[in-house]
Amino acid sequence: MARNQPLNIVHSESSWGWGGQEVRILTESRGMLERGHQVRVLCTPESTIFQRACEFGVPVEPVSLQKKNFSCLNAVRKWLNDNRDVNVVNTHSSIDSWLFGVASRTIANRPRLVRTRHVGIPVPKNMASNWLYRSGSDFVVTCGVEIVKSLSERNGVSLNRLRSIPTGVDTQKFVPGDRLKARQELGLPTDRKLVGIVAALRREKGHAVACEALAQMPRDDFDFVFVGDGLSKENIENKIKELNISDRIHRVGHQQNVVPWLQALDLFVLPSYGSVEGVPQSIMQAMSCRLPVISTTAGSICEAVDHEETGLIVAPEDSRALADAINLLLDRDELREQYAEAGYQKAIQKFPIDFMLDRMEDVFYSVQDSQLVRAA
Question: For residue 370, what pLDDT is reported?
């Protein structure tokens, strides 16, 4: 297939939630549409991504992807038979990957399947999972090098069929701004420093660890800002009440446009733990807004944050270490500035959205041609 010929790309997503994974799907879809490709997203009509696709200007179609059962399998098989012009289906979660992996094997002239693995949780070492990643997909994209290593070493997936393509950041949208102006427009304090987390309220994002760090810090010259919503909202609110720090944390919920919230901050924090993370979009967005970052060794975070260069890395679930790191950067304006500039340069040079789109196009064209994708 000629590289200048537009592709017909379909993204599938069985998740009902909303987070970085779903944002990447819609951001990438919009970018591919702007490049002249035909793109659609298939998902369950009750899901959040179905509702948000219109906001991104991305075509969306309802398909039953709720469960790994014969009903959903038949729905996917029917959809594939009715849409023979599709070149590539990019699956994103477990259920839709299984449904398309199995259903596509029952039809002739099937589309190529690319599985994007967004999280760092190790894939089970069993026959079914090994089939899905070795044979059920034509190629596997990950959001971090550590995930590539795990799939290769743990699950025996050939490196020729793996590639790390971190989520790109729109460096024309996520830009440094006027901190005072942003705070005034958002109604945030202008007389104290602000430390922020922009992330879905999920246990593994570490909001509770941030709360514990705040409770250990006697200083009262800064506040936290939590931007995001999610399943752990009630647990986080209970933690805030338990620690009696409600007046020190501005909880603003989900924000469609997080740019001004990032521009209002002095310091960005993401104390994630566990193996869920790839390279978090929020970290790259913060760096593109010229913010210093404090994070952890979870997942592939260290591919974005260089310790003592673009920010600080602390051990996961260590609230004391997090408090010490926050104290250090709040006290040293010149160090915050140094890390912020280094992170900004890294974001605009290594993580622009066009890099992600170029590499995903390369994967899509190569699997369509049944060729091995060149090394990253």
Answer: 66
- Give the residue numbers spanning the domain of 223: 179-350
- 119, 71: one domain: yes
* Distance in angstroms (rounded) separating the CA atoms of residues 168 and 350: 9
Cα dihedral across residues 309, 315, 319, 324: positive or negative: negative
- Please state the domain count of the chain: 2
What CATH number did the domain enclosing 226 receive?
3.40.50.2000
Task: Tell which residue, 60, 51, 57, 49, has the closest CA to residue 18.
Answer: 49
* Cα–Cα distance, 313 to 322 (Å, whole number): 9
Question: For residues 76 and 67, what is the distance between their CA atoms, to the nearest angstrom?
Answer: 11
Residue 3 forms part of a structural domain: no
In whole numbers, what is the pLDDT of the chain averaged over residues? 93
Token code pair at residue 163: 């590639």
- Give the separation between CA 161 and CA 131, rounded to whole angstroms: 13
Q: Which residues pair with 9 in a beta bridge?
A: 39, 88
pLDDT tens digits for range 159-175: 999 999 999 999 999 99
Residues 234 and 119 both lie in one domain: no
The two tokens of residue 218 are 């006697």
Tokens coding 180: 């005072």
Same domain, 18 and 144: yes
Q: What is the pTM of this model?
A: 0.84
36, two tokens: 């002249």
